[in-house]
Amino acid sequence: MSNKLTPKERMQIPWHKMPEQDPEERNKNFLEVNLGYTEAFAIAEAQRCLQCKKPKCIEGCPVNIKIDEFIGLIAEGDFLGAVNKIKEDNALPAICGRVCPQEDQCEKVCVTGKKGKPVAIGYLERFVADYERESGKIKIPSVKPDTGKKVAVVGSGPAGLSCANDLRQMGHDVTVFEALHELGGVLVYGIPEFRLPKKIVEKEIEGLQKMGVKFETDQVIGMVTTVDELMEEEGFDAVFLGVGAGLPWFMGIEGENLVGVYSANEFLTRVNLMKAYDFPHYDTPILDCKDKNVAVFGGGNTAMDAVRTAKRLGAKNAYIIYRRSEVEMPARIEEVHHAKEEGIEFLLLSAPVKFTGNENGWLTQIELLKMELGEPDASGRRRPVAIKGSEYTLDMDIVVVAIGNGSNPLIPQTTPDIDMSKRGTIVVDEETMKTSKKGVFAGGDIVTGGATVILAMGAGRTAAAAIDKYLKTGEWHQSAE
Q1: What's the CA gap between 410 and 269, in Å, rounded?
Q2: Cα separation of 217 and 146, whole Å?
């Protein structure tokens, strides 16, 4: 059917917008914003793919999903075949279809996008993953015969889950250790329900459990057990560290210790993982946002998640305050667009100077300084420069600081023979994800600093291949040396 279309006919098919909840309804609930494609929409959107002989989209994907092939299967109506094709390279398609920055990766280099909108690769990935889950016909990958080797995966975020998936398929005995009481890492504590429903993360993890991956929660490696103890006392032949970047950064300004000032980590963890949004069913303590003024400092996806969460919790005014302009914002274009639709106010080219509180130590006001853009800095973005005498104040009840995170410090504190960078990240051989300690590998945000889900997954897959080789050969050398 679809393969009979000429390239010209394909180019004439209009892009299919993802159906969404109405902004004035969704900004009051935690249901998913994007509602998903219908089967007809998915087939029509897949028919827009030109099936390039050398698909650049595959190169744009950190885990090199066979994008042309899975989209070709959708165009033919073979949705289960399409999701199985994705799973050859990506164990978490329902998650990646929702939270990956496709506009900066696969869709950015789509040839169709040169004369219009690129093929909606992310929406199609999400569609087939949801179709599989809702059909109940989830195919569990086959597992090779037991190798007799044990691997500990520390952290159940995207890097850890991806690594565990590949290692288990290779026949290794895999145990994932998670510090929190629920599995999923940043996927459950950091990303709100309206962007990534927790049931989807649970279902993806359930698939790994059916493959034989073991999970242990409430295991803070570095405190409960050290890396050395995992290897020397518990008999693990290799360890993968995917512990993320969970140490929040603050701004170091006056009044930052007032009641009402949160890190994005704490705010989102209380709301997402501890379900503060579902009060009174979950009586998780959090400052009441209802009818309050809430400001979120930052311009990334975490900042958008936090401010849109505050709006849903009833904030009277919810602000994004960012020291650069919208052009420099690292957040996904879709997240910024959704935030604006939902009534979020953007105060750009503004930076905080100090926070003021009352006699009881509660935040009451913030002082801001207007900025202008100067020359580009090391990030390639224009550097914000303060405008003297431009201070102004806003009454504020709650502030959320979402300016980034540092690396988890517990592992290096208890495993000093793992080399760390000046930024506090673990140093690895990028080709193998090997650390300086024999048998220990690392990947994801603990290596890169805060990055994307798919990049973390790519690191997990790279590490799994190197771990498998190490377990088979016992050889340990760094290609960078």
Answers
A1: 19
A2: 24
pLDDT at residue 9 greater than cutoff 80: yes
Report percent pLDDT > 70 for the chain: 98
pLDDT at residue 423 is higher than 50:
yes
Q: Which residues contact 454 (CB under 8 A, 6 or more apart)?
A: 61, 62, 63, 96, 100, 101, 105, 158
User: Is residue 199 very low, low, confident or very high in pLDDT (cuts 50, 70, 90)?
Assistant: very high
| Sign of torsion over alpha carbons 121, 122, 128, 129 | positive
DSSP per-residue codes, 307-342: HHHHHHTT-SEEEEEESS-GGG--S-HHHHHHHHHT
pLDDT in the model for residue 282:
72
Residue with tokens 């885990």: 63
Per-residue pLDDT for 459 more than 60?
A: yes
User: For 117, which DSSP code?
Assistant: P
* End-to-end Cα separation, the chain, in angstroms: 54
Domains plus CATH for the chain? 2-135 (1.10.1060.10), 150-246+407-473 (3.50.50.60), 250-403 (3.50.50.60)
Residue identified by tokens 């209009």 is 14
Give counts: helices (H), strands (E), the chain.
18, 16
Average pLDDT over residues 100-124: 92
Q: Do 185 and 241 form a contact (C-beta atoms < 8 A)?
A: no
Whether pLDDT at 280 is above 70: no
- Residue that has been written with the tokens 């224009």 in this structure: 382
| The residue count for the chain | 481
- Find the radius of gyration of the CA atoms of the chain: 23
DSSP state string for 331-388: S-HHHHHHHHHTT-EEEESEEEEEEEE-TTSBEEEEEEEEEEEEEE-TTSSEEEEE-T
pLDDT in tens, 28-76: 999 999 999 999 999 999 999 999 999 999 999 988 999 999 999 999 9
In sequence order, which residues have a C-beta less than 8 Å from that of residue 10 and are 6 or more positions away? 47, 48, 49, 50, 112
Nearest-CA neighbor of 350 among 379, 385, 402? Answer: 385
Burial level of 360, CB count in 10 A (0-12/13-18/19+)?
exposed
Return the half-sphere exposure (C-beta side, CA atoms, 13 A cut-off) of residue 153: 35
Residue 280 carries which side chain, given as an amino acid letter?
P
- C-beta neighbour count of 444 within 10 angstroms: 34
Task: Give the mean model confidence (pLDDT) for residues 351-367.
Answer: 96
